[in-house]
């Protein structure tokens, strides 16, 4: 560094050397660093996260496809109307699409992005998307529109850049836009040439390219600005083929609430509905969680937390996916054994080369311990002593775990397709509820399962056949050997059920029918009817028809399947490797409670500062704690009004408590002014945090704003 | 129509193009005087929507080829744009470009004077300001200055203001030059028939179209006298009217049959198209395929909004806070409130229904207190609860009172209707009526 000595005075820039240090961070982030596989975990996590992200994006596009295509159709239709010039002089209506997107506004960004791209690719390069935030007045609104349209066109013509910039600043009106649009017509930009499909050009529709203006958050727009903008635009409908798209979060009726008739009569509004967020979530859940594609799994508790946040708080699919990704990060970060949480082959390889530390960790897994207990005594000894043996067993268990997942999901879907037919859905309306119950405990021991099974036992034949067919469809896509066997069995059931139709239509027990008819006449109540039917089922006194026998057989088989495959994941050995289960952490992270954390910070400073000196017993406060914490602790003991002087005295006593012991230090003689200053600052911080406020009821007192205390 | 100084054939064609407004045109022309004479400095023309104000003035200017500029004040977001337009129209782009960045009124007057001294007006110049009520919001001196612009620039210029608002609402409190007031009355029914019958379809006789217009007005005249709207509706429904004729089921003389065919259709149109429940495009499409008897669902058919669970309760709590007096909260939300009869703790002004008075503002604390007691499970005051309040505000279901930057104790108002709240509380099994003071 000495070489930089120079005669002239000047500044020399040295690139900081700290760059390398920052890059090393990955190891540090993942685990305690002593582990050699922190990097691997990071990589697996990264890969998984990216695939999840890609999957959600693809899924989103698929789900939005219909409504977006409809929109494009709508715009094209109006484009045709424009160009064929069927518009009458009198009615100057601007075609408007009201796009219903659901109440979570941040989620709309992605939809609008794909809409913009789609429109620019297939319809018109002139797409403007507006945010309410930048459009407080008509002036700004028009400015934004012009910027986005003309800026795009001008980007290619460098020489005009300055001119337009100036132009935009001084004045902007839709009149200018008209001029620009006409000039583009005469002298098409290269950008246009490229983006327009040849067939459109040949049709001669080239010049009627519409200008699409998207109002992303219609509700938030300034009413006056919006109304004026629409009024102005309606003056130019002859020259400018404008089309509006309103992104509406609530309901279409808000258009009428917000625009007076004189304005809304200038619009030709059509409503488009996108998929509701709950349906959207169901799709995401199906594709991301109810699949054996991803090795990473969520435990039932975590799922409940994520679903709870979705249903109770925000209705945001985006944040659900974010939550999933966060739990992924947490899992790979906190669980060292998550190295094994990857594709089967890779996991087996890794299991072979487990470090000794990790083998020890495996031995401590509760699910593994449970497994060990079920083994023969000599096996148990081996498992507890030989590392090699553990590794081998581990490979076997991992294989089993993968198999379990492959069988679990198809059977879960089959069970869902059966139970969702039933009245009142005893097992839950959505498959996620069924999944959570199955994952939590043995589903066949539950009351709901029994009632569902009982209801299934009185299912009509055509319903049963339809449900079984659906199951067969689900099972076809599963490609394990066991599932193929199940599929064969189900197919056979279907065939037998259908044969019944041909053979035994005539030998229905006639007397039974008559008897039941009498019953029905007597008790018209549905509840009684159901009860009596169930009773009959249980009595089994009468002869069962062959259909009933077969039906029982089918249900018996399904019950067996459930007992075999839908065992809770926790009971699977090594489930901790794949399952993330700390729901508490996740809740804390995603659903932050600012008040709780402020209180925790103030009453237990150690919690956040991690300084040994601050560790105290419950209810006491260390004199080393920050002033604010001491003040807070003291104020808890006061009533509604706090005497400032008493408070100060108490503060001084507490904060100088330890200093008494080390009396020789000069700290003890710390000037009183300093203490006073500390006190005043802490009190004003308390006021800032909203715990106290000044009051005029009594001099030298402050009022407490929280309840509790004495 | 006779008026000195203007070519007669043009006047005749003008009279043809402006039916039912002959008297207005004549008065206007006499106000304007001959082209080279000085005219009155400012004329204020007012009348309801679609009474032909702009159309008449615009046609007169255009047909008689007078020097004029037509400015819609909605477009002029700043006076600069107005000045720019005027200078551009009268003196060409050079003059307009020489306006400074943020021109003041005196800049404009100065430039105008400069330019008009070079090219003095041979004919009266007209500045026509449509929707002139907007000028009131611009600069307080703009309107008085425009009213006596002739005097300021000493040029033959007349400002014509067009507005739907009467002059009394314009008059600034500092006083100003009084313009000539000129009222355009509404069209009566006969006028409307005459005007609407003019745009008859070329393939049918004018008589048929006139009878169609009569039927149309029979339905719509009681609710709508807006010419523009009526013309739109007439054009929209005419194909349906002609349907029996095209099918050969009726002849042009069978007016009664045609009437029976179209009448219910028009009634339906009144409920949907006129209110913009259904767009005219959809209406037309629906006419094309008659088999589809179900009307497309209008805008108000989808009043339901899906909200997260706690947002629903927050909205209910906000509604209760807005429509219950704060003193009664004890009675509704405390477990052991004792018996308080309504009459005992009524203040005089509270005897009127709170629902008639509209929502009252309430502080955030009260909203949360009610929310916690209303919601059936224990809820932690998490950040997402607070963000839900904000998103309700951004969805315009709540409105924030006072300034945005008031962090201390923000106040809100509930902006949804009773029906909406009842629908929402039904979905969460909450009996909102039981908690409303007005329905005690």
Automatic annotation (TrEMBL), chain A:
Q: List the CDD domains.
A: Orc3 (cd20704)
Which one of the record's GO molecular function terms can you name?
DNA replication origin binding
Annotated signal sequence is: none
Domain (Origin recognition complex subunit 3 winged helix C-terminal) ranges? 595-707
User: Keyword annotations for this protein?
Assistant: DNA replication, DNA-binding, Nucleus, Phosphoprotein
User: Mind telling me which GO cellular component terms the entry cites?
Assistant: DNA replication preinitiation complex; nuclear origin of replication recognition complex; nuclear pre-replicative complex
Give the source's domain of life in one word: Eukaryota
Q: Which residues does the UniProt record annotate as the domain Origin recognition complex subunit 3 insertion?
A: 352-582
Q: Where in the cell?
A: Nucleus
UniProt xrefs under PANTHER family: ORIGIN RECOGNITION COMPLEX SUBUNIT 3 (PTHR12748)
Function according to Swiss-Prot or TrEMBL: Component of the origin recognition complex (ORC) that binds origins of replication. DNA-binding is ATP-dependent. The specific DNA sequences that define origins of replication have not been identified yet. ORC is required to assemble the pre-replication complex necessary to initiate DNA replication. Binds histone H3 and H4 trimethylation marks H3K9me3, H3K27me3 and H4K20me3.
How does the annotation summarize its subunit structure?
Answer: Component of ORC, a complex composed of at least 6 subunits: ORC1, ORC2, ORC3, ORC4, ORC5 and ORC6. ORC is regulated in a cell-cycle dependent manner. It is sequentially assembled at the exit from anaphase of mitosis and disassembled as cells enter S phase.
Put simply, this protein is called: Origin recognition complex subunit 3
Automatic annotation (TrEMBL), chain B:
Gene3D superfamilies attached to this UniProt entry: P-loop containing nucleotide triphosphate hydrolases (3.40.50.300)
Q: Which keywords are on file for this protein? A: ATP-binding, DNA replication, Nucleotide-binding, Nucleus
Record-level GO BP terms: DNA replication initiation
**What positions does the domain Origin recognition complex subunit 5 C-terminal occupy?**
307-436
Domain of life of the organism encoding this protein: Eukaryota
State the signal peptide span: none
Subcellular localization is given as: Nucleus
Which residue ranges does the record assign to the ORC5 lid domain?
A: 209-276
List, for all copies, the residue spans of the domain called Orc1-like AAA ATPase: 17-160
**Cellular component terms, GO, for this chain's entry?**
nuclear origin of replication recognition complex
The cross-references to InterPro entries, in alphabetical order and at most eight, read: AAA_16, ORC5, ORC5_C, ORC5_lid, P-loop_NTPase
Q: Function of this protein?
A: Component of the origin recognition complex (ORC) that binds origins of replication. DNA-binding is ATP-dependent. The specific DNA sequences that define origins of replication have not been identified yet. ORC is required to assemble the pre-replication complex necessary to initiate DNA replication.
How is the subunit organization of this protein annotated in UniProt? Component of ORC, a complex composed of at least 6 subunits: ORC1, ORC2, ORC3, ORC4, ORC5 and ORC6. ORC is regulated in a cell-cycle dependent manner. It is sequentially assembled at the exit from anaphase of mitosis and disassembled as cells enter S phase.
Spell out the family assignment given in the record's similarity comment: Belongs to the ORC5 family.
This protein is called what? Origin recognition complex subunit 5
């Amino acid at each position: 560094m000495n070489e930089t000595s120079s005669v002239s005075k000047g500044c020399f820039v040295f690139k900081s050397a700290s760059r390398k240090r920052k890059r090393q961070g990955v190891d540090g982030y993942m685990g305690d660093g002593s582990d050699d596989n922190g990097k691997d975990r990071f990589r697996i996590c990264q890969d998984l996260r990216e695939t999840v992200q890609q999957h959600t994006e693809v899924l989103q596009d698929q789900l939005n496809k219909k409504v977006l295509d409809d929109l494009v159709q709508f715009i094209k239709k109006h484009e045709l109307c424009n160009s064929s010039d069927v518009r009458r002089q009198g009615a100057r209506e601007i075609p408007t699409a009201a796009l219903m997107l659901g109440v979570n506004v941040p989620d709309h960004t992605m939809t609008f992005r794909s809409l913009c791209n789609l429109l620019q690719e297939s319809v018109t390069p002139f797409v403007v998307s507006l945010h309410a935030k930048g459009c407080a007045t008509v002036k700004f609104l028009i400015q934004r529109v012009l910027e986005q349209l003309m800026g795009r066109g001008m980007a290619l013509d460098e020489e005009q850049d300055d001119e337009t910039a100036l132009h935009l600043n001084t004045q902007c009106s839709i009149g200018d836009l008209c001029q620009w649009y006409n000039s583009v017509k005469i002298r098409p930009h290269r950008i246009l040439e490229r983006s327009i499909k040849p067939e459109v050009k040949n049709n001669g529709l080239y010049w009627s390219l519409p200008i699409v203006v998207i109002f992303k958050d219609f509700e938030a727009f300034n009413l006056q600005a919006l109304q004026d903008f629409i009024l102005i635009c309606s003056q130019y409908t002859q020259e400018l083929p404008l089309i509006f798209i309103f992104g509406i979060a609530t309901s279409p009726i808000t258009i009428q609430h917000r625009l007076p008739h004189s304005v809304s009569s200038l619009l030709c509004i059509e409503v488009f509905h996108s998929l509701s967020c709950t349906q959207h979530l169901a799709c995401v859940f199906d594709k991301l969680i109810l699949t054996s594609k991803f090795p990473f799994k969520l435990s039932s508790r975590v799922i409940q937390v994520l679903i709870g946040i979705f249903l109770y708080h925000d209705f945001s699919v985006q944040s659900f996916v974010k939550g999933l990704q966060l739990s992924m990060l947490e899992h790979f970060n906190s669980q060292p054994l998550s190295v094994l949480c990857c594709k089967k082959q890779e996991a087996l390889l890794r299991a072979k080369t487990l470090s000794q530390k990790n083998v020890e960790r495996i031995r401590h897994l509760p699910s593994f311990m449970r497994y060990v207990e079920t083994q023969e005594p000599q096996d148990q000894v081996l498992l507890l002593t030989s590392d090699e043996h553990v590794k081998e067993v581990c490979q076997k268990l991992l294989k089993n775990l993968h198999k379990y997942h492959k069988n679990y999901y198809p059977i879960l879907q089959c069970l869902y397709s059966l139970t969702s037919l039933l009245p009142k859905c005893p097992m839950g309306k959505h498959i996620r509820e069924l999944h959570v119950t199955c994952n939590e405990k043995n589903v066949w021991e539950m009351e709901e399962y029994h009632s569902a099974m009982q209801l299934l036992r009185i299912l009509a034949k055509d319903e049963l056949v339809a449900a079984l067919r659906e199951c067969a469809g689900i099972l076809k896509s599963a490609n394990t050997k066991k599932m193929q066997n199940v599929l064969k069995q189900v197919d056979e059931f279907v065939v037998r059920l259908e044969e019944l139709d041909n053979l035994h239509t005539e030998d229905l027990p006639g007397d039974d029918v008559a008897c039941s008819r009498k019953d029905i006449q007597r008790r018209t109540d549905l509840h009684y009817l159901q009860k009596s039917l169930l009773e009959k089922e249980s009595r089994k006194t009468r002869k069962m028809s062959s259909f009933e026998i077969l039906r029982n057989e089918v249900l018996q088989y399904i019950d067996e399947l459930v007992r075999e495959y839908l065992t809770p994941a926790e009971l699977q050995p090594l489930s901790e490797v794949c399952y993330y289960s700390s729901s508490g952490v996740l809740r804390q992270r995603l659903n932050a409670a600012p008040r709780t954390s402020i209180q925790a910070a103030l009453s237990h400073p150690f919690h956040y500062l991690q300084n040994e000196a601050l560790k105290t017993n419950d209810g006491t406060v260390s004199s080393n704690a920050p002033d604010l914490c001491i003040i807070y602790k003291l104020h808890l003991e006061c009533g509604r009004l706090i005497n400032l002087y008493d408070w100060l005295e108490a503060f001084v006593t507490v904060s100088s408590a330890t200093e008494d012991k080390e009396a020789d230090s000069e700290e003890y003689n710390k000037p009183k002014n300093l203490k006073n200053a500390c006190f005043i600052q802490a009190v004003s911080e308390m006021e800032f945090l909203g715990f106290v406020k000044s009051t005029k009821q009594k001099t030298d007192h402050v009022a407490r704003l929280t309840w509790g205390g004495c | 129509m006779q008026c000195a100084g203007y070519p007669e054939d043009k006047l005749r064609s003008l009279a043809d193009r402006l039916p039912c407004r002959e008297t207005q045109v004549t008065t206007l022309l006499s106000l304007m005087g001959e082209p080279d004479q000085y005219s009155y400095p400012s004329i204020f023309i007012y009348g309801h929507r679609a009474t032909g104000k702009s159309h008449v003035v615009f046609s007169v200017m255009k047909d008689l080829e007078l020097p004029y500029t037509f400015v819609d004040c909605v477009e002029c977001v700043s006076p600069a744009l107005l000045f720019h337009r005027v200078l551009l129209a009268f003196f060409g782009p050079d003059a307009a470009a020489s306006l400074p960045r943020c021109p003041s009124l005196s800049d404009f007057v100065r430039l105008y004077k400069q330019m008009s001294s070079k090219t003095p007006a041979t004919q009266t110049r007209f500045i026509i300001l449509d929707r002139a009520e907007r000028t009131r919001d611009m600069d307080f001196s703009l309107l008085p200055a425009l009213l006596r612009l002739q005097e300021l620039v000493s040029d033959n210029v007349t400002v014509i203001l067009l507005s739907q608002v009467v002059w009394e609402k314009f008059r600034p409190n500092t006083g100003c030059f009084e313009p000539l007031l000129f009222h355009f009355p509404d069209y009566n029914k006969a006028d409307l028939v005459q005007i609407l019958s003019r745009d008859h379809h070329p393939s049918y006789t004018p008589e048929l179209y006139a009878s169609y217009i009569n039927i149309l007005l029979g339905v719509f005249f009681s609710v709508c006298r807006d010419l523009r709207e009526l013309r739109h509706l007439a054009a929209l429904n005419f194909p349906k009217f002609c349907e029996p004729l095209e099918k050969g089921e009726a002849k042009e003389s069978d007016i009664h049959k045609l009437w029976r065919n179209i009448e219910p259709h028009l009634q339906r149109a009144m409920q949907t198209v006129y209110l913009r429940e259904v767009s005219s495009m959809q209406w037309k499409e629906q006419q094309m395929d008659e088999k589809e008897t179900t009307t497309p669902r209008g805008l108000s058919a989808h009043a339901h909004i899906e909200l997260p669970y706690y947002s629903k309760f927050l909205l209910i709590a906000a509604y209760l806070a807005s429509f219950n007096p704060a003193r009664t909260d004890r009675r509704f939300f405390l477990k052991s409130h004792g018996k308080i009869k309504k009459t005992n703790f009524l203040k005089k002004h509270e005897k009127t229904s709170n629902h008639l008075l509209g929502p009252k503002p309430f502080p955030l604390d009260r909203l949360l207190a009610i929310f916690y007691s209303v919601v059936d499970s224990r809820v932690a005051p998490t950040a997402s609860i607070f963000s839900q309040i904000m998103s309700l505000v951004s969805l315009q279901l709540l409105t924030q009172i006072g300034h945005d930057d008031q962090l201390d104790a923000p106040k809100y108002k509930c902006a949804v209707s009773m029906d909406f709240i009842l629908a929402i509380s039904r979905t969460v099994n909450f009996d909102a009526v039981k908690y409303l003071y007005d329905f005690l």
